[in-house]
Design brief:
The protein is of the alpha+beta class. Helix content is 31%, strand content 18%. It is elongated and about 90 Å long.
Length: 164
């Protein structure tokens, strides 16, 4: 019968702990890869797209306040979201859109995250609800999404006419 002496057990345990310590130490002290050493490029001053958009909640709040103040200064109603926005005005790039009294802004989006190589909508985005139908438009006036209730296929024809 083979028996391990206490000294051999201690030696084996010390070796296991030494190997583990070396492995953990190498993991913590590993040299960074060359890609990790590259500096992150700064976006150009006139950048368009996701890098030039607000990224923190504070920046988003500032952008929303600026948008609301600008629209209000020009005599428009401040469009946030919810049923109380029925009949409000929405500022797009080259026009101001007035919603019908039975349509409202269901959702207002100031910031989007875009995937490189894919198109990125111009913010802000407005999700407009009318009854059980809704449509989403971006700042340029492009319709991004349309969901129409059965029998209500012409619910947003007025919007399509204005956006032509």
């Amino acid at each position: 019968m083979n028996r391990f002496s206490p000294a051999s057990v201690i030696i084996v345990l010390v070796m296991v702990f030494a190997v583990a310590a070396i492995m953990v130490g190498n993991t913590w002290a590993a040299e960074p890869s060359p890609a990790e050493l590259l500096p992150t490029p700064e976006p150009p001053e006139d950048a368009k797209g996701p890098l030039s958009k607000p990224t923190t909640p504070e920046e988003v709040a500032v952008e929303e306040a600026r948008y609301a103040a600008d629209l209000s200064r020009r005599g428009g109603r401040v469009a946030a979201s919810g049923p109380e926005t029925a009949g409000s005005t929405i500022e797009l790039r080259d026009r101001v859109l007035t919603l019908p009294e039975d349509a409202y802004i269901e959702m207002y989006t100031v910031h989007v995250v875009c995937i490189e190589g894919h198109s990125c909508p111009e913010t802000p985005l407005h999700m407009i609800r009318r009854g059980n139908s809704r449509v989403e438009i971006d700042y340029s006036g492009e319709i991004l999404f349309e969901e129409l209730a059965p029998g209500k296929e012409s619910e947003f024809d007025w919007l399509k006419e204005v956006l032509r």
